[in-house]
């Protein structure tokens, strides 16, 4: 109790006198491992520019699409249907919703929001209009009709996740890029209260459309300057929740208190990318053999002490495998002897000294493995990979680079091998494969590729991606996905190394209702997302 009182005193010092006149009873406290900037609640501004509650507590989207399993949760939209040609999306919007200023929400606000993105293209960061949206109109107060120039059903998560703003307010804002929106008006479960350099608070919306929720009276975010500082607040009982990365969450957090829990759902993977524009990585047989020589289970154990597992070599995350991984598709099995034999068979024999030779008979060079400077998990992965490849006669060197050089090397194609996360993802594997291997996401060496880091394309994959996005038929999409998985696993333009998780840590001392593996109602994110909104709606005081 003393620890909670201490935190209350800290917040009292940070928050203004006017705010202290309101004393919410059940306050849910979130600690974050970083500082924040100016008072900005612009939902169109990038996430590193606006403050935390903007898109998680204040503004709302039409739907929430869970990236773990693709489940769609209605928010301001209640249902949606595609036309037979998949060029018209009709959304029913929720009646009886009020903006924070008391005015009524309608489908006209949603139509305005999408047309506002067209009016100011810099706001359309998901490229909704560039990817086929041709028109947005409200046919009445509860019906939004979106028309498309081409069939592209995979655009739905971006439509669903767009934060909706009130036309009455934003129609008067002519400089939305620089608008700070200091007193935000949304439809969300909380309203902005006060902000200081130490704390930020939102209060329960008494007129929220979801009757009986939220169960808490306020959410307070407390800033720190590091993961260690944020973790300490959790351990001391000064916070109920924290999105905090740790090397060993079991021993570093869970076992240090009976109410300490964590749920780190897998939302992506870490990969060893091969630069397919450079020999010998341009040879699929070489890439397959190298992939088979790496013990990914050992990579995961060494890098994350058991907190993460080896990734499936398809790249499909566990939560999506049941629906999208073709039946009977095994993960690539580690076998150094088989890899050694495969390299020789492919024309890469060894000399008397055990050095691997190229097809020209000359010794292969020492290959660099690009990682971020000081990123201990990636460095550890590179060390294990290098040790495994040494066993089959390949020499490697770890190349640590600062962020700009690291990202620049990956995107301009000047690396040999590189370790990074999947530069794409979504509620189905389509989003990962499309952004990773779509021709439009690639570029010539020296030019910046948005996300196709391997610079790998294959006509079969490209055609299957097009087929997937042009239909809303589940069977047709599964058939397309089977083609993609089969082709990618045969060519191995990358090697999925380890699962990559969110870092959801919480204490059940005062609250219950957190998302868990048994109840994964969001994807474990607590940043400024619609998924975090679900957590703030579902946590309950004990």
What is the straight-line distance between the termini? Answer: 15 Å
Decide which structural class fits the backbone. Answer: alpha+beta
Mean of all residue-level pLDDT scores: 93
What is the chains' assembly state?
single chain
User: Which blocks of ≥5 consecutive residues have pLDDT under 50?
Assistant: 1-10, 16-21
Q: Rg from C-alpha positions?
A: 25 Å
Strand order of the largest sheet: 8-9-10-1-11-18-12
Strand content: 15-25%
Q: What is the helical fraction, as a range of percent? A: 25-40%
The main β sheet shows up as: 7 strands, mixed
Total count of strands? 20
Give the helix tally. Answer: 17
What's the shape?
A: globular
Signal peptide: 1-21
Pfam families: SBP_bac_5
Domain Solute-binding protein family: 71-439
Keywords: Signal, Transport
Describe this structure in words.
- By secondary structure, the protein is of the alpha+beta class.
- Helices cover 30% and strands 19% of the residues.
- The chain contains 17 helices and 20 strands.
- The chain has helices at 2-14, 17-20, 107-119, 156-161, 167-170, 227-235, 249-252, 284-292, 296-304, 318-324, 336-345, 376-390, 403-412, 429-437, 459-469, 474-491, 530-538, and strands at 27-32, 63-65, 72-74, 77-82, 88-93, 133-140, 143-148, 190-195, 199-204, 218-223, 241-243, 260-263, 266-274, 367-372, 396-401, 417-421, 494-501, 504-507, 511-512, 540-541.
- The strands form five sheets. It has a seven-stranded mixed β-sheet with strand order 8-9-10-1-11-18-12, covered by helices on one side. A five-stranded mixed β-sheet has the order 15-14-16-13-17. Strands 4-5-7-6 form a four-stranded antiparallel β-sheet, with helices on one face.
- Helix 12 (376-390) links the parallel strand 14 (367-372) and strand 15.
- Helix 9 runs antiparallel to helix 12 and helix 14 crosses helix 15.
- It is globular and about 80 Å long.
- The two termini are 15 Å apart.
């Amino acid at each position: 109790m003393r620890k909670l009182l201490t935190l209350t005193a800290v917040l009292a010092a940070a928050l203004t006198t006017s705010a202290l006149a309101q004393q919410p009873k059940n306050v849910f406290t979130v600690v974050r491992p970083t500082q924040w900037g100016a008072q900005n609640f612009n939902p169109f501004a990038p996430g590193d520019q606006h403050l935390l509650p903007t898109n998680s507590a204040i503004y709302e989207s039409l739907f929430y699409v869970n990236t773990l399993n693709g489940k769609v949760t209605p928010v301001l939209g209640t249902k949606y249907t595609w036309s037979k040609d998949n060029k018209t999306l009709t959304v029913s919007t929720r009646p009886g919703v009020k903006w924070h200023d008391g005015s009524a929400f309608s489908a006209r606000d949603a139509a305005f929001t999408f047309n506002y993105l067209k009016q100011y293209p810099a706001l359309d960061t998901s490229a909704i209009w560039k990817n086929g949206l041709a028109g947005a109109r409200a046919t009445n107060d509860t019906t939004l009709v979106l028309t498309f120039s081409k069939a592209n059903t995979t655009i739905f998560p971006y439509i669903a996740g767009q934060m909706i703003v009130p036309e009455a307010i934003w129609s008067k804002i002519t400089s939305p890029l620089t608008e700070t929106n200091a007193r935000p008006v949304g439809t969300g479960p909380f309203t902005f209260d006060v902000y200081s350099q130490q704390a930020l608070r939102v209060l329960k919306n008494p007129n929220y459309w979801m009757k009986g929720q939220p169960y808490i009276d306020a959410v307070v975010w407390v800033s720190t300057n590091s993961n260690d500082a944020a973790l300490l607040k959790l351990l001391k009982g000064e916070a109920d929740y924290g999105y905090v990365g740790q090397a060993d969450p079991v021993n570093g957090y869970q076992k240090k208190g009976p109410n300490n829990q964590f749920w780190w759902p897998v939302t992506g993977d870490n990969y060893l990318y091969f630069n397919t524009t450079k020999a010998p990585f341009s040879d699929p047989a070489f890439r397959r053999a190298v992939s088979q020589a790496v013990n990914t289970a050992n990579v995961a154990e060494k890098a994350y002490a058991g907190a993460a597992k080896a990734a499936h070599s398809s790249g499909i995350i566990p939560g999506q495998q049941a629906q999208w991984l073709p039946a009977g598709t095994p993960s690539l099995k580690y076998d150094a002897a088989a890899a050694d034999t495969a390299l020789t068979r492919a024309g890469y024999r060894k000399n008397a000294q055990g050095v691997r030779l190229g097809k020209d008979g000359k010794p292969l060079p020492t290959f660099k493995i690009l990682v971020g400077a000081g990123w201990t998990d990636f460095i550890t992965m590179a060390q294990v990979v290098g040790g495994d490849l040494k066993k089959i006669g390949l020499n490697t060197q770890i190349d640590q680079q600062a962020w700009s050089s690291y990202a620049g090397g990956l995107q301009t194609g000047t690396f040999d091998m590189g370790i990074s996360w999947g530069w794409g993802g979504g509620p189905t594997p389509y989003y990962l494969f499309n952004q990773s291997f779509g021709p439009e996401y690639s570029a010539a060496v020296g030019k910046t590729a948005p996300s196709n880091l391997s610079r790998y394309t294959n006509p079969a994959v490209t055609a299957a991606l097009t087929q997937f996005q042009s239909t809303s038929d589940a069977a047709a999409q599964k058939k397309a996905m089977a083609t993609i998985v089969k082709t990618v696993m045969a060519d191995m333009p990358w090697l999925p190394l380890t699962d990559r998780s969110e870092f959801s840590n919480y204490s059940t001392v005062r609250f219950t209702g957190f998302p868990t593996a048994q109840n994964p109602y969001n994807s474990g994110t607590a940043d400024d997302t619609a998924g975090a909104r679900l957590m703030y709606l579902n946590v309950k005081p004990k």
